Amino acid sequence: MDSLITAAARALATGNPLSALNFIALRDDGPALALRGIAMAQLGDLDRAKALLRRAARAFGAREAMARARCVVAEAEIALASRDLAWPAKALDTARTTLELHGDRANAAHARYLEIRRLLLIGRLDEAECMLAKLDLTALPPALRAVHELAAAGIAMRRVRSKAAQTALDRAEESARGARIPALAAEVEQAFTVLHKPVARLIARGKDRPLLLEEVEALLSSKALVVDACRYVVRGGEKLISLATRPVLFALARTLAETWPEDVPREVLLARAFGAKFTDESHRARLRVEIGRLRRLLRAVARVSATKRGFALTPVRTRKVVVLARPVEEEHAAVLAFLADGELWSSSALALALGASQRTVQRALDELAASGKVQAFGRGRARRWVTPPMPGFATTLLLPAPLPGG
User: Beta-carbon neighbour count of residue 156 at 10 Å?
Assistant: First the structure.
């Protein structure tokens, strides 16, 4: 490796892409093309970066397997940054294996972290946590140790473990300080900001207030009867009753919990559960049937009793009933939660992350665009969607993930 390539690589390692380009901007050999691609990625021109890395991979000879593998890892990072979640994970795994065989442990670990970040982004926390636990931090440079702790903090936040998240971010901050990379330090700072933003709302006795992550954690470990509108479950101590596939029953449970300890008129329950504006005897009969089903499901944690004007909820082993709700509740909230990270998303990537069909996601995006909540850039397969983050809320915590006990 010549002196210009070495100087450019050092500049990129410290997060200085402009200095790197000054050394290699006019060169078209494999190493220079690879470094130019990384520099363009750091500057935000992801399409140009991807094209340069592919040229670099072709420019390296058949005997330069490690160099080609590094290009694959760099392209995978660009795919993650551009939210191309359908990028072939097998290619990244093959590149990681090649790097390990050639003794490049740092870049092999970096490849592993890319896969962990992808799993975390789409809510596959068990796989991400298992993969993270297998990585050895002792031989890694400070930058990768910071990335490791950021991933650990992300998993902890999604699992509602505030103390573990705080500890991981403290370690990430220390490692980022040692790495002396401004972009990495900014990422850690942003993670701290997310940790201290409201992640949910507490609704009790007709009033609601925002909750921080540590407050949600305390609530879920308390003895209160919690109707969880984030994951559509009812929690009573160690008992967990899922109503995720029973939207009518969950609507009834939430309405009863929001009004507790008062009873709820039948007309209100009909409107909330069935959307009925006018009621007749058939509606009332259906309400009695659904209340009976709810009563059987909740019998271990609460009683649902009839009153003169409607129904009331009475907890069995506690004197407190609350509703845990999302900080923002509206149609297509899950789509908005992904877009609120400020990155450009394709409809196919959103569909993959949400576990929905691409057509369903596209309809949601069209409706959000019509109301001015999202914007589209590009056309055809290059079309991407984005929206500014919702101020004051930790939007990444709205993404799909099981809460404790789920």
Answer: 22
Tell me: do 181 and 297 sit in the same domain. Answer: no
Range of the domain at 104: 3-195
Nearest to 239 by CA among 165, 299, 308: 299
Categorize the per-residue pLDDT at 330 as very low, low, confident or very high, splitting at 50, 70 and 90: low
Element (H, E) at 196: none
DSSP states of 348-394: HHHHHHHTS-HHHHHHHHHHHHHTTS-EEESSGGG-EEE-PPPTTS-
Please spell the DSSP secondary structure of 304-365, one letter per residue: EEE-SSEEEEEESS-S-EEEEE-SS--TTHHHHHHHTTS--B-HHHHHHHHTS-HHHHHHHH
For 2-22, the pLDDT digits (tens) are: 888 888 888 887 778 889 899
With contact defined as beta carbons under 8 Å apart, do 172 and 153 qualify? yes
DSSP bridge pairs for 315: 302
Scanning 122-212, the segments in alpha helix (DSSP H) are 125-133, 142-158, 162-179, 182-195
What domain count does the chain have?
3
- Integer Cα distance of 356 and 138 in angstroms: 40
CA distance 308 to 310: 6
Q: Of 195, 214, 247, which marks where a domain is finished? A: 195
